[in-house]
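Internal tracking record. Fields below are filled automatically when a chain is submitted to the structure queue. Please do not edit lines marked as system-generated. If the sequence contains nonstandard residues, flag them in the REMARKS field before resubmitting.
Queue: standard
Priority: normal
Entity type: single polypeptide chain
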Amino acid sequence: MPLPSLEILNRIIFQSPFDRQVYLSTLMGEIGLTGFQATRLLTELVEAGVVEVASARCPQCFESIDYVRGDCPNCGHDLFSVSRFEVQGCLSKDNQIEYSKYASDRGEADRFAKRWVQQGHIFYLLIDLAESQIHQEQDSIAYNQFYADIRERVTRKALSKTKYALCLGEIGDCIKLAFMDANDAITALMEIARFIREDNLAANYPTLKGRDAPFPRFDGTLGKISIQGRYDDPKKVLCVTLNGNLDFNDYELTRLFRFDGAIKTQKRIYRDIMVTAWVQDDVLDEMEGWNKIPMVEIEAKAHERSRKSKFGLLTFNGTDIDPFRAVQHPGNYLS
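SYSTEM-GENERATED OUTPUT FOLLOWS
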């Protein structure tokens, strides 16, 4: 299977926040496998002890099936929609309930989207764990548990201090947050830095250790996303994915992702810093006095096209004394 398919399979089996049942048809639809490929893959997963197949009955002749099978051995009926295995969610039972309620609340999403359409833009924060690949290689199970822990803390401790904010996107190693107000985004970054410092997360995950940056440290990109005129119906702006997460996709967001990918922060900045954030000039223009801070021009390329935008760099130390500051020479911290 190509790499994207392996990543999807990893997300299905090991990174699902919820307990769920995965059918042969799930593997076919989400990974893009044929019925034969899905049956073979599930058989190999069972033989390797990765998953355990659940017993099922043929919907036509009610034959009992307790092994991987694409068709009924008795009547030949299609079993892709009944052959399944069960996945244990990476969140605790209590957190699954809380996360599902938060992420799947369509009413809350629609209210946020309505304000977005009325205002014409939101502020979108992408925040990643520094040296994430190194940590995942050190202990992938602890790494997944850490991210589940971080997401729960972001929702409970950081977003609770803001007025209108949503956690967006699929489970993965990039946390995506949307805000109606730029100051709320700064507040959330301050709170994230605070709980990283105060909660001593490194002690909870001793197998995850930083190489060039202390563990855990986060690096973020904050941009302004304008809503396009075609989204005149707020209910069409956000959708709820199969995993129960709110999501949004648009070219404006794609451009922000490209800038995020083009920014590589030097790890030496993290000596006493919990979180760094590259803030786009469009965001700084929304905040009184902030457009005076030093900025550096970032160039992002994709499909032979180049885009440029200016960014300032903020650092957050997780304390009440001088909780964040603007870096005077941000270009010095670009790799």
